[in-house]
UniProtKB/TrEMBL annotation:
Protein family according to the UniProt entry: Belongs to the methylmalonyl-CoA epimerase family.
Domain (VOC): residue spans on this chain: 5-133
The protein's name in its UniProt record: Methylmalonyl-CoA epimerase
Keywords: Metal-binding
CDD domains according to UniProt: MMCE
Organism encoding this protein: Desulfoluna limicola
Superkingdom: Bacteria
Amino acid sequence: MKVLHVDHIGVAVRGIDAGRRFWEETLGLSFEGKETVAEQKVTTAFFPVGESEVELLEAVEPDSPVGRYLEKRGEGVHHIAFRVEDIDAALSELKAKGIRLIDETPRIGAGGARIAFIHPKETQGVLVELCERT
């Protein structure tokens, strides 16, 4: 598997507009806009930082994965995403190594990226996303 760099750090927030104040006004990061990913019941907002981004995640519905995360843990770092060269090859390699995955096949995430998550029990409690962008 070829990991290219940290693609983004996902931060769960109760509201993007309130959350964005710190990243945009305090740190001076550029706001790239919002996108709702209906399949994941989440609205995202990206703030580029070099080759990486900060991604704010706001639950569209309380029973969504981000909604359940917020209810259980509150606002904070939700996941770390690594950009990979070939997500299909990466998932095949992880499966061959016996690594437990949340997604055995890629799905479409924000910005049209192909994404898949590794189960946090394999990563010392960190939710890790693999991300392929074309």
